[in-house]
TrEMBL record, chain A:
Family membership noted in the UniProt record: Belongs to the dynactin subunits 5/6 family. Dynactin subunit 5 subfamily.
Gene Ontology CC entries for this record: dynactin complex
Protein's recorded name: Dynactin subunit 5
Organism: Aspergillus bertholletiae
InterPro entries reported in the protein's UniProt record: DCTN5, Trimer_LpxA-like_sf
Stored PANTHER family: DYNACTIN SUBUNIT 5 (PTHR46126)
The entry's keywords: Cytoplasm, Cytoskeleton
Pfam families: DCTN5
Main localisation: cytoplasm
Protein location: Cytoplasm, Cytoskeleton
Automatic annotation (TrEMBL), chain B:
A GO CC term assigned to this protein in UniProt: dynactin complex
One annotated GO biological process: mitotic spindle organization
Gene3D superfamilies: Hexapeptide repeat proteins (2.160.10.10)
Region: Disordered, residue numbers: 1-36
Gene Ontology MF term list: dynein complex binding
Protein's name in the database: Dynactin subunit 6
Protein family (similarity comment): Belongs to the dynactin subunits 5/6 family. Dynactin subunit 6 subfamily.
Purpose: Part of the dynactin complex that activates the molecular motor dynein for ultra-processive transport along microtubules.
Any coiled-coil regions, as ranges: none
InterPro entries documented for this protein: DCTN6 (IPR027777), Trimer_LpxA-like_sf (IPR011004)
Automatic annotation (TrEMBL), chain C:
Compartment(s): Cytoplasm, Cytoskeleton, Microtubule organizing center, Centrosome; Cytoplasm, Cytoskeleton, Stress fiber; Cytoplasm, Myofibril
Disordered, as annotated region: 13-62, 201-230, 492-511, 536-593
Protein name: Dynactin subunit 4
Entry superkingdom: Eukaryota
């Protein structure tokens, strides 16, 4: 497909989010975008996998779920200047806890980059995190601020990647650290504003 | 509006123009003949194209944006499977042509199989029960994957390969980086365990636990994806 | 990590100055400003020499060790120099577990080893983290009662694979060490000792072991021997160490024989006099030099080897090897049942099969502060807490040297991302030889003083693939960085908008790169145009390389090209190029020889506020409060990969 689609591929929201018309977003009312976030075409965001209130799911599949729907629970939050590339998949993690299977919110911080065809099922992704293309972030994993996931890495379910660490491989291991200057505006890890600015031009 | 309805929201953002759904698509892509069990949950945005029949078993959940193509042969998906978003089963291939010339390559996916996001299962694959194919993994043509096996994220099973039961394929991609290991099914012992006199449990209990979690996950998903429990395509 | 094109690396000047001598450095801090090879006065003239003498060659093997991405470099304010990881020393600020992110006190690291003492384990099969899970879910009770296992979410290994389960979900490491210790050796009661770090052994050897006196001599007590039985590997190592220590002690005649304190003598390299005493006071060596040994011996004392199990001797069962081999050959083992070398690295040396592999407690990580090697000033000091990402001190090079960014100059704005690269942009992964490409080089100043920059490049890049490079405006000024608030008040999008308007669709059609003029300029950045004519690859000689390949083996190669697996044709084309074995070696393209990298010499001058160190100033500015400073370094711009095919 042409990388640069004719004018108007992106819809800009009031808070400056640029969302491709070809993005595949489900459950919009369960998604919070912090503003100036970019979502490219064919990226799937599963806001429909939100957490139902524990009481209702524990008591089985009954119909009285009004309390849960009064305030829609948040499935995915994405901070400012984050960038979700083409065909990436964001889906909230889930697990069985005390006999109840439920989805947990996926929190993505500011200045996060998610590469093409990456699958993110993390519990939390900190600020300035880079997720390379074709990377898989397993369920309930935690990527701390300034974590760097190399292309094609498979971060195992439940893994914690500490700040400044570079992980790669399958399953991912810590293979190095980014420099102290990582995340400085304009340098590696600090390109988010520039990236945002150039989208849809 | 029923609050339940508002929970389930499968459409693109409201301001975006409605995406042409596969059923109303003007393109001449043939809609595959689908027979799905009433208790199967198939999301709105699933693509079911092809010429051969597609059968979907009871209790199976097909996430939105999954793609199932039956151009090269029939596809049978057993009961209680989970097919994740953007996974692709079958090949999108040229419509109509190959199926006539080549012998049909059926895809058989047995019960309790999980196919992860963006995973690919190509024609001729035979995926036995309780197999997990993780995100971005590829099961190539004419591959057989034994029961209770797992293809880890990003791994590719090469063509014509037969994976035994209870095998985990892991490591990086295809070829050299790839590793295999056999899962424990019985009472295992080791030097440590023997001297401790630990009454070992069968390795199988782990798998039982996993399948039970899967069952619960399906129950949760039915509530979220399929409106009103055993929801069908709207 | 290799970077996608275009990239900019900066060369640390330390590669061309003598490596600071650690001995000299250690000797005295106070003399460092005299003897230091990196004295701030020195580098400037040196750099001039450097500039005169030769061009930085990005392809030279040495360059590998001096080129760094800008964000990896630090800057020493006292030396006024860029500092790379080679010119700093590190000190550990804290130890923490990368999994639970809890801090481990350094005293505990010494005594318990550098692994997490909590519930964090890595899978012995695949190294993914293990989770503590209950088996109660099988029954669906969810009562959070045992038994518990460690399970790997990636490869599905569980401790049931080795037949181990736990009674409670806490203190797994203690539980596990109890199992392993009692199974392997009853003598050792210390927890999980086979996973101890080497750090711990020296500090704790004395309280773990009978003193050398007890096991000295040839007669080990028979009671002791009966008790011990087979030791676990770590215990055996300790026993052997104790044994040899006692051997050395008993055979040595000199009371202060340096070898007597085995571990300590070799483990503390700082004690120079102790090493010197090797030559002076050791009886044996001393006599060689005709030294001052007190009682020269006629017969050198004899050291014996360990004889009993308590001394660390282990005699394997006579058929042990055969049993192992039989097991390897048996059907239920197979290749998958054998532990790989990688898996065995951190396991007991006897572990041969996957069933022998034990969960590994997670290795700790450290936070480190960094000092300049030559002047000892702290360059980086992170906050103490493991989870904090703040720094108390962080002198990164990017705060001092201008940040270079390179973009191709294209009619439509370049998106800076491979995914959104406009079709009109040149494909940097296959640049057409001999076809001019223009690039925009932007230098962004992070200092609060305006900077005058002079760029210099060789007109032709070094190496066999000679590309012509011209910087249209080699000398320019960059404005000062201002407060964060200024930028915010001016509107965050201002610089980008300005740039976009100039290089945007409208502007670029009118605007043409001119020699001697900067392309664009903002508050604290300046953009100049770089004109590059990629050279042709060796062996081209009129006929393109791909063409020749096709002439040689037309059939097969054509097949390759048509194959649908050849989707990433660029990579494949390159792979084909340098592996063309039929060619004359001189003609053959070396790996990455087709990468177009441009060395650029950057010299920056600025007036900075005068500080105490007046003697370091190069010259007085107009104002006595300011001093003129300059800094010069090489940087390398990775422009792209030259394709073997001629463009049109």
């Amino acid at each position: 497909m042409p990388p640069k689609v004719a004018k108007g591929e992106y819809i800009e929201t009031d808070t400056g989010n640029k969302i491709s018309r070809r993005s595949q977003i489900h459950g919009t009312q369960h998604i919070i975008l912090g503003g100036k976030t970019v979502i490219q075409g064919e990226a799937v965001i599963r806001g429909d996998l939100y957490r139902t209130s524990t009481s209702s799911s524990a008591s089985g599949d009954q119909t009285g779920q009004q309390p849960a729907t009064a305030t829609p629970s948040v499935a995915i939050t994405i901070g400012r200047y984050s960038y979700i590339s083409k065909q990436a998949v964001l889906r909230p993690p889930s697990r069985l806890h005390r006999g109840v299977h439920s989805f947990y919110p996926l929190k993505i911080g500011d200045h996060v980059f998610v590469g093409e065809r990456a699958v993110v099922e993390a519990a939390s992704v900190g600020n300035h995190v880079h997720v390379g293309k074709d990377a898989v972030i397993g369920s309930m994993a935690i990527l701390k601020d300034f974590a760097y996931v190399l292309d094609g890495a498979v971060v195992a379910p439940g893994m914690v990647v500490p700040s400044w660490c570079v992980v790669g491989g399958a399953p991912a291991r810590i293979v190095g650290e980014v420099g102290e200057g990582y995340g400085v505006e304009g340098a590696e890890g600090g390109m988010a504003r520039e990236r945002y600015r150039l989208v849809g031009r | 509006m029923d609050p339940r309805q508002s929970q389930v929201h499968l459409k693109p953002p409201a301001h975006a123009p409605a995406r042409p759904s596969p059923s109303t698509s003007p393109t001449p892509t043939p809609r595959a003949p689908v027979t799905a069990h009433p208790s199967a949950t198939i999301a709105d945005t699933v693509i079911l194209h092809g010429t051969h029949p597609i059968a979907i078993g009871a209790g199976t959940i097909v996430h939105p944006r999954a793609k199932i193509y039956s151009y090269e042969g029939p596809i049978v998906i057993g009961e209680n499977c989970i097919i994740s978003e953007k996974s692709s089963i079958g090949s999108a291939g040229v419509a109509g042509e190959r199926s006539r010339t080549v012998d049909a390559l059926p895809i058989r996916i047995l019960a309790c199989v999980t196919i992860g996001p963006l995973a690919t299962v190509l024609p001729g694959a035979h995926v036995h029960s309780a197999v997990t194919v993780e995100a971005l993994a590829t099961v190539s043509r004419r591959v057989s994957i034994g029961a209770h096996s797992k293809v880890c994220a990003g791994c590719e099973v090469a063509e014509n390969v037969r994976i035994r039961d209870w095998t985990v394929v892991w490591g990086s991609g295809a070829g050299f980086g790839q590793r295999r290991r056999t899962r424990a099914t019985e009472k295992m012992s080791s030097a440590t365990a023997v001297t401790q006199g630990i009454q070992a449990l069968e390795g199988r209990v782990i798998e039982d636990a996993r399948l039970m979690v899967l069952q619960k996950e399906r129950e949760a998903l039915v509530r979220l994806i399929g409106p009103g429990g055993g929801g069908r395509r709207r | 990590m290799s970077r996608p094109f275009p990239y900019a690396y900066i060369s640390c000047p330390c590669a061309d100055t003598p490596v600071p001598d650690p001995a000299r450095k250690r000797r005295s801090k106070e003399t460092s400003h005299k003897t230091n090879p990196e004295d701030p006065n020195v580098p400037v003239p040196e750099d001039y020499d450097f500039e005169d003498e030769r061009t930085f060659d990005p392809r030279s093997p040495r360059s590998n060790f001096s080129l760094y991405p800008p964000e990896q470099l630090l800057y020493c304010e006292d030396c006024h120099q860029i500092k790379c990881p080679r010119c700093i020393t590190e000190e550990i600020v804290c130890w923490f577990c990368p999994n639970c992110l809890f801090e481990t006190p350094s005293s505990m690291v010494r005594s318990e080893g550098n692994r997490c003492a909590r519930n964090c384990f890595n899978c012995p099969i695949c190294t993914a983290p293990l989770a503590v899970t209950t088996l109660e879910n099988v029954t669906g009770g969810g009562s959070q009662q045992g038994p518990w296992v460690l399970s790997c979410g990636y490869c599905m290994w569980t401790t049931l694979d080795i037949g181990v389960k736990f009674d409670k979900p806490t203190n797994i490491r203690t539980q596990l060490s109890k199992m392993t210790d009692s199974s392997r050796g009853r003598q050792m009661s210390k927890t999980f000792s086979d996973l101890k770090s080497p750090l711990s052994t020296y500090s704790s050897i004395d309280d773990q072991f009978p003193s050398p006196n007890e096991i000295r001599g040839d007669e080990a007590s028979p009671i002791n021997e009966q008790l011990s039985g087979p030791l676990n590997p770590e215990a055996r190592f300790q026993a052997l160490k104790g044994f040899y220590k006692s051997q050395i002690a008993s055979t040595s005649s000199s009371p202060n024989d340096p070898l007597a304190d085995f571990g300590a003598g070799f483990s503390s390299p700082g004690a120079l006099n102790r090493i010197m005493s090797l030559y002076t006071s050791s009886s044996r060596l001393g006599s060689l030099y005709g030294g001052t040994s007190k009682k020269p011996k006629s017969k050198p004392p004899v050291m014996r080897e360990a004889l009993t199990a308590s001394e660390g001797l282990r005699v394997p069962a006579p058929d042990a090897e055969n049993a192992l081999i039989r097991r390897m050959a048996s059907d239920d083992c197979g290749w998958d049942g054998m532990a790989s070398l990688e898996q065995r690295t951190f396991q007991s040396p006897d572990a041969r099969f996957v069933e022998d592999l034990l969960p590994l407690p997670v290795l700790l990580r450290t936070k480190r502060s960094k000092r300049c090697k030559s002047c000892k000033h702290i360059l980086v000091k992170p906050e103490f807490k493991p989870q904090s990402t703040r720094f108390r001190i962080r002198l990164i090079a990017l705060s001092y040297i201008p940040l270079p960014t390179l973009k191709p100059l294209v009619p439509s704005p370049f998106a800076g991302l491979p995914s959104t690269t406009p079709t009109t942009a040149p494909n940097l992964d296959s640049l057409s030889p001999l076809r001019t490409v223009q690039f925009l080089l932007t230098l962004k100043n992070h200092m609060f003083d305006p900077v005058r920059v002079t760029l210099a490049t060789p007109s032709v890049t070094p190496g066999r693939v000679a590309s012509k490079v011209t910087i249209l405006c080699p000398q320019f000024d960059i404005g000062a960085n201002s407060d964060v608030w200024d930028e915010a008040l001016q509107g965050s999008a201002a610089p980008g908008d300005a740039r976009a308007s100039r290089s945007g669709t409208l502007g670029s059609t009118e605007k043409v790169a001119e020699a001697g003029k900067v392309w664009d300029k903002g508050r604290n950045w300046t953009t100049v145009v770089l004109e590059v004519v990629p050279g042709s690859l060796p062996g081209g000689g009129g006929v393109t390389r791909r063409g020749r390949m096709k002439q040689h083996d037309d059939g097969s190669n054509d097949d390759d090209d048509n194959d649908d697996s050849d989707a990433d044709s660029d990579a494949n084309a390159n792979a084909l190029d340098w592996s063309g074995q039929t060619k004359d070696p001189n003609q053959r393209l070396q790996p990455d020889e087709d990468v177009l990298e441009i060395p650029v010499f950057v010299r920056m001058e600025w007036d900075s506020e005068n500080q105490i160190d007046q003697e370091q100033s190069v010259g007085k500015g107009q104002n006595s409060d300011t001093v003129k400073r300059e800094l010069a370094y090489w940087m390398v711009l990775g422009v792209g990969r030259i394709s073997s095919e001629m463009g049109f």
